[in-house]
Amino acid sequence: MSLSDIPAFLVALALLIAIHEWGHYRVARACGVKVLRFSIGFGRVLWRRVGRNGTEFTLSALPLGGYVRMLDERDGPVAPAEREQAFSQRPLRQRAAIVAAGPLANWLLAVLLFAAVAWIGSEVPKAVLGTPPAGSLAERAGLHAGDWVRATSPDNQQWQDVDSLSDLQSAVARAQALGESLHLTVSDAQGHGSRSVHLETERLAGRAPDARLFMDIGLLPLADPVLSQVTAGGPGAAAGLMAGDRVLSVDGQLVPDSAFLRDAIRRSHDGQQPRTMVWRVERAGQVVELKPTPRLADDGGRKVARLDILPASKAERVFVSYGFADGLWRGLGQSWDMAATTVRLLGRMLVGEASVKNLGGPLAIADAAGQSARAGLVPYLEFLARISLGLAVLNLLPLPMLDGGHLMYHLFEGLSGRPVSEWWQRQLQRAGALILVLMMALAFTNDIASRLTGWH
């Protein structure tokens, strides 16, 4: 996380917390419950205002959460005149509605943000594929450079249209995380012909979501084999490669796209020894022959060759937008699919069938906030939608410290006719706090590990 990521992260955090607490607040007021304080953040109060209904609105120094404090007999004596306004005196269905309103507000925000992204529209990479890496799932499935993925299906029956490369990548990531295969409908780059392809993403179930996994799946965008960057002092620069070079061939093989070039570089070694390659590149209208020798690097326990260059990744782009009804329907569908996938993924992590490295922490979220904000309004709105939905799902987990835990208390009360005893609430509260601490520690560890891997 860089300092430039912090403002985008704090704006996102404040907005999503405010929406969450606003949900609790509005439903509490609608049910006649007196709200004593509406706070964004914890600790020292930086700003305070008292509303007409007596609610104290505050902004505190530590913006890592928030709360709505309601009049409640469990927290202390309540004046007889205000007893009817106490949370503890409201009917069970109203108390449950107040608790559920926070996550529901985050879910509704996610729907509207996803819909706004669809309404505004954006220029996105087309789902036309480059050359699959050797041995990847895409190569085994029979995909080729220039294939255009038009739709995906987990069961070969219900199909979802693919409007962009990000749609395809999301579907593939979901299938891999859930241990499912994925069927693709593919045409050529001009949209002619159609065939069905089976991508065996279930083979990679349980793998951590890292760069190596991305290469092993092999769905890379089609882009010209032009070098966009050559790192000074690296083996590519030492061999005379320059940004802007168009690679024509490597070891006598024509290079059709940047994906083919990346794979050729990675495989240019014999065991523990890098192998010198013969490149023909076009530079300023002239053909130049160069002989770069890569360095070897460890990539998840296996050796890959690197030239410290960056082939172009600028794929063909299309503008995608939706009308009002279609955009709203897309927002509903995206939020539902993402929530269901998150719940299933958490279940698979719990039983050891999915990698716990899927769990990201505050550093990963801050990175994503900064990157999306720099990319523009639409990417940032989509980031906010994803985080808002994640916050909704997280808060509905049946842990006593969260809204979902309180809903479990209300469910027990509804089924048994009596509330959970104070002794049990204390024990469950301790257990829930411990689980949350462990989850946060794991997420933070994943953040640190991903950065150490990147530095290596």
Automatic annotation (TrEMBL):
Main subcellular localization, coarse class? membrane
Query: Which co-factor is required?
Result: Zn(2+)
- The reply to whether tRNA-binding figures as a keyword in the UniProt entry is no
Q: Enzyme class, one word? A: hydrolase
Highest taxon of the lineage: Bacteria
**Which InterPro entries has this protein been placed in?**
PDZ, PDZ_6, PDZ_sf, Pept_M50_Zn, Peptidase_M50
Entry similarity comment: Belongs to the peptidase M50B family.
Protein name per UniProt: Zinc metalloprotease
Q: Which organism is it from?
A: Roseateles saccharophilus (Pseudomonas saccharophila)
